[in-house]
């Protein structure tokens, strides 16, 4: 089926099977590989994108559903050469080890800061509850989100 997706502010026309997930379209059709495949079942957060204003699992969203939403991927967080404050804070706090979970963490945190610019630690933990990190860098991630929120 032919669809027009709005991703990172740009329009992308694709021709995909009816049940194609947004994740597969992002990675395989559009080359936006910052969004990661983890579990494929909505349980790890590696594939999160912002759909309208919410962080959602792109492995569970069909491309057809996504065509009715504004999608932001991790590639859409920076403004040209200028990193998003969260991206800077993740670097400054060394909030990653292998980095596999990082784009999903950034997406959840960006959705949080867009609706609450001064979240407390409970709100940060709640916003990141759907993002798993096999390297266990949760403490550094939380520090990075606090740093970005105070910048
Ligand atoms: S790959 Fe989508 S939540 Fe794990
Ligand atoms: S930094 Fe390795 S999975 Fe999170």
Characterise the protein shown here.
With 151 residues, this protein is of the alpha+beta class. The protein has 6 helices and 5 strands; from the N terminus they run ββαββαβαααα. It has a 5-stranded mixed sheet, with helices on both faces. β3 and β4 form a beta hairpin. The longest helix is centred in the C-terminal third of the chain and has 14 residues, at 102-115. It starts with a strand and ends with a helix. It binds FE2/S2 (inorganic) cluster (2 copies). Residues 37-40, 42-47, 57, 59 line the site of one FE2/S2 (inorganic) cluster.
Q: How are helices and strands ordered from N to C?
A: EEHEEHEHHHH
End-to-end Cα distance: 44 Å
Output the radius of gyration: 15 Å
- The percent range for strand residues is 15-25%
- By oligomeric state, this entry counts as single chain
Unreliable residue stretches: none
Label the structural class: alpha+beta
Bound molecules: FE2/S2 (inorganic) cluster
What secondary-structure arrangement, pairings included, does this model have?
Blueprint: E1 2-7, E2 10-15, H1 22-29, E3 48-51, E4 54-57, H2 63-66, E5 70-72, H3 85-92, H4 102-115, H5 121-127, H6 138-149
Helix pairs in contact: 3-6
The protein binds FE2/S2 (inorganic) cluster (2 copies).
Quickly describe the structure.
With 151 residues, the chain is of the alpha+beta class. The chain contains 6 helices and 5 strands; from the N terminus they run E-E-H-E-E-H-E-H-H-H-H.
């Amino acid at each position: 089926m032919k669809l027009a997706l709005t991703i990172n502010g740009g329009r992308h026309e694709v021709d995909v099977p009816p049940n194609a997930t947004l994740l597969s379209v992002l990675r395989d059709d559009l080359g936006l590989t910052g969004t990661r495949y983890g579990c494929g079942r909505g349980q790890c957060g590696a594939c999160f994108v912002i759909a309208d204003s919410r962080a959602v699992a792109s492995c569970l969203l069909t491309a057809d559903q996504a065509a009715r939403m504004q999608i932001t991927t991790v590639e859409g967080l920076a403004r040209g050469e200028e990193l998003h404050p969260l991206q800077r804070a993740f670097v400054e706090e060394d909030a990653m080890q292998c980095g596999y979970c990082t784009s999903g963490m950034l997406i959840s945190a960006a959705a949080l800061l867009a609706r609450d610019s001064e979240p407390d630690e409970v709100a940060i933990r709640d916003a990141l509850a759907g993002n798993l990190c096999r390297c266990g860098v949760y403490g550094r991630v939380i520090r990075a989100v606090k740093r970005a929120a105070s910048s």
